[in-house]
C-alpha cells in the first residue's frame, strides 16, 4: 500500500508517507486550518497547501478500502463490555448520511445538481456515505462513500450493501437498521454475505407486505416475505421466512403513541421475546449519534473542505480513521474509569488529543522515551477527569420541523418529555 501511494517519481517527497497519514488524521480532528498547515506542523517541512492537497487527492478510495479492511476491527469484549452484546451476538448497526461539497467545477461537473425538498435547486452538491459501526463503542468497521461514476448520485442502500463484506467473519452478530433497509432483499443479502452468522433486526414500513404463517405466544408472528430475484433472465419469487413484531410506544404525559413494526431473523420467541427485541432496537439510534460525532464533534460541520470528488473521498476516509482512533482511545479511558464508552465526551477527547499531538510533534526530540511515557500517562489521567460527562437525559424527538417545506407537522414550541416510556406488544391475529 505504501509503495502504491508513496512519494511521486518526480522527486523526493518533503514528508514521508507515514507522516502524511498522521497529518490527515490531525487535519480530520481539527475544526480549522488547512491540510498543508497540519502537515508542516508535524513534519517541519516547507510544503505548500496545494502540494498537500494534490497528495491527498492521489490517495484513491480503493486504497482506503484496503486500509479499512486491514485496520478496522471490533473493539468490544464480551466480559468487559456486555452492553455491546445480546445473547452472545455482537451488536452492529448500518446507517448513512450525506455531506455537502464545495461548489467547484470539478465537483459540479461530476455530481447531479442538488435539489431541496421542494425540487428547487439546492445550495451545495451532496456526497453520500454509509458506515458499518459497532454499537456501544462507535467503532467503524467499514465505510463507503459517493463514487460519482454515473450521472446520478449513489443511493444509501447501494453503499450499505457494499459494506456487508466487512461483517465479522465466523462470529455471531446482530445487525440493526432503520426503515430504509426494511426489505427482503437487504435481509437476504446480509444473511448470504455473512454465511448466516449475522442476524438482522430491522424496522419496516407499513406498506411492506407479508403473509402471516403462525401467531406466536409472545404476540409476534412468523411471516413469509417474497424475495424477488431480478438478476436472472426470468424473474424468480422466493419465500423468505421472518418474524414480525409490532409494538406501541407510549411516553407518560403524552397522548400520542407511536407504533413500531420490526422484522427479524431471530425466530425463537422463547429465547428472544418480542418485548426484549423491541427495547433492543432503541440502540440503533447510536448510528445517528455516530454521524453527529463525526460531523459536529470531530469537525466543524457537514461541509467537506475538499474541492474535488477524489479529495472528498480522501477527506472522508481520514475522518473514518480519526473516528476509529477516538473510539479506541475512549474505550481505554472508559475501562480505567469503569464506565460505558458513551459516558466520555468525544468532543473533549478530540480537542485534547489535538493538543497532545502538537506537543509530541514539536518536542519529540527534546524528550527522552521515559519522559514521553510520563507525559502520556499524565495526559491520560487528565483526559479521564475532563472527558467524563453525566448520564444522558431522556428526550423526545417530535416528528416535525420548525419550518416545514412539505406536509410535515410544524413544531411551534420545543419541549422535552419527562417520564419513562411504556412499550407494549400488539398481538397478531389471523385475517
Provide an overview of this structure.
By secondary structure, this protein is of the alpha+beta class. Among the domains are: 1-58, no CATH class; 63-293, Alpha-Beta Complex (Transposase Inhibitor Protein From Tn5, Chain A, domain 1). 34% of the residues lie in helices and 19% in strands. The chain is built from twelve helices and eleven strands. It has helices spanning 17-29, 35-43, 49-57, 61-71, 105-108, 156-161, 184-193, 274-280, 286-297, 309-337, 346-363, 369-386, and strands at 85-86, 89-100, 126-134, 139-145, 173-177, 198-203, 211-215, 221-229, 236-251, 258-264, 421-425. Strands 1, 2, 3, 4, 5, 6, 7, 8, 9, 10 and 11 form an eleven-stranded mixed β-sheet that branches. A hairpin with a 6-residue loop joins strand 8 (221-229) and strand 9 (236-251). Helix 1 (17-29) packs across helix 10 (309-337) and helix 11 packs antiparallel against helix 12 (369-386). It is globular and about 75 Å long. The relative contact order is 0.13. The model is unreliable at 6-11 (pLDDT under 50).
Q: How would you summarize the topology of this molecule?
A:
Blueprint (H helix, E strand, L loop, with lengths): L16 H13 L5 H9 L5 H9 L3 H11 L13 E2 L2 E12 L4 H4 L17 E9 L4 E7 L10 H6 L11 E5 L6 H10 L4 E6 L7 E5 L5 E9 L6 E16 L6 E7 L9 H7 L5 H12 L11 H29 L8 H18 L5 H18 L34 E5 L6
Parallel strand pairs: 2-5, 5-6
Antiparallel strand pairs: 1-2, 2-3, 3-4, 6-10, 7-8, 8-9, 9-10, 9-11
Amino acid at each position: 500500500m505504501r509503495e502504491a501511494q508513496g512519494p511521486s517519481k518526480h522527486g523526493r517527497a518533503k514528508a514521508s508517507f507515514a507522516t502524511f497519514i498522521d497529518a490527515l488524521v490531525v487535519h480530520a480532528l481539527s475544526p480549522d486550518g488547512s491540510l498543508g498547515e497540519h502537515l508542516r506542523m508535524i513534519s517541519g517541512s516547507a510544503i505548500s497547501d496545494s502540494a498537500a492537497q494534490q497528495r491527498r487527492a492521489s490517495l484513491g478510495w480503493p486504497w482506503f478500502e484496503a486500509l479499512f479492511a486491514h485496520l478496522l476491527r471490533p473493539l468490544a469484549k464480551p466480559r468487559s463490555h456486555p452492553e455491546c452484546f445480546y445473547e452472545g451476538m455482537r451488536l452492529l448497526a448500518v446507517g448513512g448520511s450525506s455531506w455537502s461539497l464545495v461548489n467547484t467545477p470539478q465537483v459540479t461537473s461530476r455530481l447531479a445538481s442538488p435539489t431541496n425538498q421542494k425540487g428547487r435547486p439546492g445550495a451545495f452538491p451532496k456526497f453520500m456515505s454509509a458506515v458499518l459501526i459497532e454499537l456501544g463503542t462507535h467503532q467503524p468497521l467499514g465505510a463507503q462513500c459517493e463514487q460519482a461514476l454515473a450521472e446520478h448520485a449513489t443511493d444509501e442502500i447501494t453503499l450499505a450493501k457494499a459494506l456487508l463484506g466487512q461483517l465479522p467473519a465466523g462470529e455471531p452478530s446482530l445487525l440493526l437498521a432503520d426503515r430504509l433497509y426494511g426489505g427482503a432483499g437487504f435481509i437476504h443479502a446480509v444473511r448470504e454475505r455473512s454465511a448466516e452468522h449475522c442476524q438482522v433486526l430491522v424496522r419496516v414500513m407499513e406498506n411492506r407486505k407479508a403473509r402471516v404463517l403462525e401467531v406466536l405466544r409472545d404476540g409476534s408472528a412468523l411471516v413469509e416475505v417474497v424475495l424477488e430475484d431480478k438478476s436472472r433472465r426470468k424473474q424468480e419469487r422466493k419465500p423468505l421466512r421472518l418474524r414480525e413484531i409490532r409494538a406501541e410506544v407510549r411516553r407518560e404525559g403524552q397522548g400520542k403513541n407511536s407504533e413500531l413494526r420490526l422484522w427479524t431473523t431471530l425466530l425463537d420467541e422463547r429465547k428472544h421475546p418480542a418485548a426484549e427485541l423491541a427495547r433492543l432496537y432503541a440502540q440503533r439510534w447510536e448510528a445517528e449519534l455516530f454521524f453527529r460525532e463525526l460531523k459536529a464533534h470531530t469537525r466543524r460541520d457537514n461541509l467537506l473542505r475538499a474541492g474535488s470528488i477524489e479529495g472528498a473521498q480522501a477527506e472522508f476516509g481520514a475522518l473514518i480513521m480519526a473516528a476509529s482512533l477516538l473510539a479506541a482511545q475512549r474505550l481505554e479511558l472508559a475501562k480505567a474509569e469503569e464506565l460505558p464508552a458513551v459516558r466520555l465526551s468525544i468532543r473533549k477527547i478530540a480537542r485534547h488529543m489535538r493538543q497532545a499531538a502538537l506537543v509530541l510533534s514539536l518536542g519529540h526530540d527534546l524528550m527522552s522515551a521515559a519522559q514521553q511515557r510520563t507525559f502520556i500517562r499524565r495526559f491520560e489521567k487528565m483526559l479521564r477527569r475532563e472527558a467524563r460527562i453525566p448520564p444522558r437525559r431522556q428526550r423526545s424527538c417530535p416528528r416535525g420541523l420548525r419550518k416545514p417545506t412539505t406536509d410535515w407537522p410544524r413544531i411551534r414550541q420545543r419541549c422535552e418529555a419527562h417520564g419513562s416510556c411504556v412499550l407494549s406488544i400488539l398481538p397478531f391475529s389471523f385475517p
